[in-house]
């Protein structure tokens, strides 16, 4: 079948656009997560997972006291499971250095456009996300995340 050159070019452009749309995942939305360096901390390093996929890492110390990451979510889900895993190094008033393994998990409800904060509380036994503007957008599960199993060698 013969197509005139302008029409043939239009068909090729259309087919290329369709292939690109199929090859890359459609994004449903995005949100931000911020973590801040706490008083008494020497450093902290965390991994942030959404739907069991590593989407960001945080590295904080005296020279880098806050970090915000932007997370894009895939189309097809309105709610997303999350997990936070990491280590926080602190210095006690006595000068002793302690390492705290921190982890937590939960569910983000309709997170598109939200700004979440990573919070460690209760002497680093709880680690979770909050949204002060819409607290109901986050469900926190008690305990540690199973996704954050300690590394073995």
Give structural notes.
This protein has a five-stranded antiparallel beta sheet, with no helix packed on it. A four-stranded mixed beta sheet has the order 4-1-7-8, with no helix packed on it. Mean pLDDT is 83; it is low at 13-25. It is elongated, with a radius of gyration of 21 Å. Helices cover 12% and strands 52% of the residues. The chain is mainly beta and 153 residues long. Strand 5 (79-91) and strand 6 (97-109) form a beta hairpin. It has one helix and nine strands. It has one helix at 5-23, and strands spanning 27-36, 41-50, 53-61, 66-74, 79-91, 97-109, 115-121, 126-130, 138-141.
In terms of topology, how is this protein built?
Blueprint lengths: L4 H19 L3 E10 L4 E10 L2 E9 L4 E9 L4 E13 L5 E13 L5 E7 L4 E5 L7 E4 L12
Parallel strand pairs: 1-7
Antiparallel strand pairs: 1-4, 2-3, 2-5, 5-6, 6-9, 7-8
- Spans where pLDDT lies below 50 across 5 or more residues: 13-25
Q: Specify the number of helices.
A: 1
What best-fitting shape do the alpha-carbon axes yield?
A: elongated
SS content category = mainly beta
Beta-strand percent range: over 45%
Output the helix-strand order.
HEEEEEEEEE
Helix content: 10-25%
Q: Look at the structure and give the mean pLDDT.
A: 83
Largest sheet: 5 strands, antiparallel
Number of strands: 9
Distance between the termini: 63 Å
Strand order of the largest sheet: 3-2-5-6-9
What is the subunit organization of this protein? single chain
Radius of gyration: 21 Å
């Amino acid at each position: 079948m013969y197509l005139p050159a302008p029409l043939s070019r239009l068909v090729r452009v259309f087919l290329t656009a369709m292939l690109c749309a199929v090859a890359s995942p459609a994004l449903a939305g995005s949100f931000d997560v911020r973590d801040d360096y706490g008083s008494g901390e020497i450093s902290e390093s965390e991994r942030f997972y959404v739907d069991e996929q590593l989407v960001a890492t945080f590295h904080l110390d005296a020279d880098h006291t806050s970090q915000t990451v932007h997370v894009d979510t895939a189309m097809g889900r309105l709610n997303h499971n999350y997990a936070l895993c990491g280590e926080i190094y602190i210095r006690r008033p006595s000068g002793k250095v302690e390492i705290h393994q921190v982890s937590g998990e939960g569910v983000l409800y309709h997170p598109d456009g939200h700004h979440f904060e990573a919070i460690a509380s209760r002497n680093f036994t709880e680690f979770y996300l909050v949204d002060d503007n819409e607290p109901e957008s986050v469900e926190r599960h008690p305990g540690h995340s199973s996704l954050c199993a300690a590394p073995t060698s």
